[in-house]
């Protein structure tokens, strides 16, 4: 990790002390939006949010920059930053295979290597004719994964523990673990040549550890290839995004917090679990999350609540839908306030402006409520008011420390 | 370069992708100004700028900090920061000799060492009587440089390629290149003792590479000394600011941009050329620049336009002149907008407040216009409105990434 981040996390770890106060981080995924010529008001500006407005009036507002000025983060980096980690550090890199596995809700123990798989079609000469096997339906992928698992079970003596999980359509996930404790390497190039007319690529390792992993993986892949040989369409497979689960210091170790993640979508549950949070099974809407938060209120000092629908509406370019989600959150807010969290932050992991139909780099509005947050003059939770708030504009990765401080969980530095 | 800068530039390089969208950076040199008891309004506030105002109303405003809080940059660092480089990194240091050479419009190939020269006067004992040779006129300097060149041509066998170029008055520039490819060192102390009554200093090298350069330079300097010995006034010379042309990764490599520099003054052309921009020959006023930009509109994706007169008016302490330049720029603005740049930024390399008659450290107002810039509530391009803009206040070196992002030239980071 970057020296500055290591220093910041070490400092937090050194100063953090446990107490009973409860912190709630409510992430409205992709909440930030744009004012443009065609869309003169943002979703936050348009939404009728009396409860959020009332809370803003007795809170401090500000803005956070997810990764770095001008950098648009994916969901992984966006959330790691909210959790206090440096999203640009190599140690925080969540590879494509790991992300796919987390997105399927798979448990990734430390040391696991994950890769994304595509079922594919090859001709008699072994050359690819379709990199997606004619986009077979999910049921077909499920059947093929069962078949592959059966083939592996029938050929013992493998030097790797292998799991194969179906994804959507032609996609699957391959998980590798070392039964003997030897570290696996994930510096393995994709076997997908990215074009038809050529055979899938051989495994190519970029360092010694990964070469040893490749040597142990080769016989496994041979079994899988043989098992698919008689398939009419999906008679081959391609592997991409080999990656190791990141090894991050946990919330408990860093911040002395028992942390619970309340998220309806697997990717976010996965990222939270990598940070050492307990993942609580939840539905997908804010009311589903709150029902579980209420049940588990005595079990944690930190609650990560993830609302996905703001981002989905942004990605769809659907302003009305984004407004509606915000109003749904607003209606649910009193239920959350009823729990009387000592510190409540409402923000996003990045902006997903409706006019862009994609994640963006724009700073994300932040509302912070605590008895010591500094009640500024902002009276509404939206982008422009946030840009005038008392908290100013700062890196998302610094938010975690601010939450701890507001909860009285950080000792004084020096005398 | 600083680790953080290297990382930022690497990240931009990793995420940058070419597209056809065009970015224009219009630099109003030294545009930022001050409100003081004696000067209650800034030049931007006083100028009648209907076109800039209209643009500001549909753009985002903010402020950039050129080098670092409280640090007043020269023109070199000020511009390198606008181009995305860390102006405080040793690799970005543009030494005095190189700056003087660039200011004369000299071509500096990689590996060239440049030094500033003064013609000077010494008495019979060899002690300095005038460090500027009685401030001889430029024509006299031109004659002396010819004489020196002739003397060098008449004494073959030098181990260095040497160029001597007259500057203003008593000043000249010495350029050194290695004909055999051995690297030259520029860690050579000034030979100017900074006071009369003593002889010029000997060449003093601060590292081994520079000691070797000094060994090869000594016979050259002996030839030059002999050539001047019979001069009535300028019978000696002093050398200062030995420096190597900085070797920066270019705009093409870093940002995948074809970049054109449109600047009427040689120093800015020189700095742009060091960054790998194509330097387009231009007149000195905004209309001259625009005429060339129009001609070359299809040749570049990035256009650097440099207006010098705002800085000159500031240095002269001439508020009316600064206002007049801004109004001239405002009148020219529709012509620039007619080209429909996809991203347009208007800012300065630093402030040159009229009351200070000098560069200063004050943040510089920035106007950013693009389809996704976030239209904030600012309605005029001036210092105070800029301080309330949606872009906030950030380091000049981060502007380049923001321009790329607004032009859709940066991929998402992580998934």
Structure notes:
The structure is a homodimer of 415-residue chains. In chain A, 34% of the residues lie in helices and 18% in strands. With 415 residues, chain A is an alpha/beta fold. Chain A has two domains: 3-93 and 248-406, Alkaline Phosphatase, subunit A (3-Layer(aba) Sandwich), CATH 3.40.720.10; 100-244, Alpha-Beta Plaits (2-Layer Sandwich), CATH 3.30.70. In chain A, strand 3 (113-122) and strand 4 (128-130) form a beta hairpin. In chain A, helix 4 (75-82) packs across helix 9 and helix 5 packs across helix 9. The longest helix of chain A is centred in the middle third of the chain and has 21 residues, at 208-228. The interface between A and B is medium-sized, with 41 and 28 residues.
Fold-level CATH name of the largest domain in chain A = Alkaline Phosphatase, subunit A
Main sheet: strand order of chain A = 9-8-10-1-11-12-2-13
Strand content of chain A: 15-25%
* Spatial gap, N to C terminus of chain A: 29 Å
Q: How would you classify the helix and strand content of chain A by structural class? A: alpha/beta
Number of strands of chain A: 13
> What string gives the helices and strands of chain A in order?
HEHHEHHEEHEEHEHEHEHEHHEEHEH
Number of helices of chain A: 14
Low-confidence stretches of chain A: none
Kindly give the count of domains of chain A. Answer: 2
């Amino acid at each position: 990790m970057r020296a500055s981040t290591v220093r910041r996390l070490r400092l937090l770890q050194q100063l953090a002390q446990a107490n009973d106060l409860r912190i709630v981080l409510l992430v409205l995924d992709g909440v930030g939006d744009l004012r443009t010529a065609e869309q003169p008001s943002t979703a936050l500006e348009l939404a009728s949010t009396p409860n959020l407005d009332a809370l803003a009036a007795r809170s401090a507002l500000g803005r956070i920059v997810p990764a770095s000025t001008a950098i648009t983060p994916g969901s992984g980096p966006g959330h790691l930053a909210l959790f206090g980690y440096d999203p640009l550090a190599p140690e925080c890199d969540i590879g494509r295979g790991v992300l796919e596995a987390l997105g399927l809700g798979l448990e990734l123990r430390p040391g696991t290597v994950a890769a994304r798989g595509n079922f594919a079609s090859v001709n008699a000469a072994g050359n690819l004719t379709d990199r997606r096997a004619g986009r077979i339906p999910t049921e077909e992928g499920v059947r093929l994964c069962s078949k592959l698992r059966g083939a592996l079970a029938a050929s013992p003596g493998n030097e790797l523990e292998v799991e194969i999980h179906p994804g959507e359509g032609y996609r699957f996930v391959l998980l590798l673990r070392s039964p003997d404790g030897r570290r696996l390497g994930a510096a393995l190039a994709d076997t997908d040549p990215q074009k038809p007319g050529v055979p899938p690529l051989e495994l190519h390792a970029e360092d010694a550890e990964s070469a040893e992993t490749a040597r142990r993986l080769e016989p496994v892949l041979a079994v899988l290839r043989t098992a698919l040989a008689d398939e009419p369409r999906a008679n081959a497979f391609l592997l991409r995004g080999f990656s190791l689960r990141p090894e991050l210091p946990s919330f408990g170790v860093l911040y002395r917090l028992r942390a619970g993640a309340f998220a309806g979508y697997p990717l976010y549950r996965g990222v939270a679990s990598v940070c050492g949070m307990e993942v609580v099974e939840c539905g997908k809407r804010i009311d589903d999350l709150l029902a579980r938060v209420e049940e588990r209120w005595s079990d944690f000092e930190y609650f990560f609540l993830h609302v996905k629908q703001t981002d989905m509406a942004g990605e769809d370019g659907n302003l009305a839908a984004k407004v509606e989600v915000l109003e749904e959150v607003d209606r649910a807010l009193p239920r959350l306030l009823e729990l009387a969290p000592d510190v409540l932050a409402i923000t996003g992991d990045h902006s997903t402006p409706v006019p862009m139909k994609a994640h963006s780099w724009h700073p994300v509005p932040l509302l912070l409520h605590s008895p010591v947050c500094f009640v500024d003059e902002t009276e509404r939770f939206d982008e422009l008011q946030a840009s005038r708030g008392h908290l100013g504009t700062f890196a998302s990765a610094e938010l975690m420390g601010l939450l701890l401080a507001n909860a009285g969980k950080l000792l004084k530095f020096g005398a």
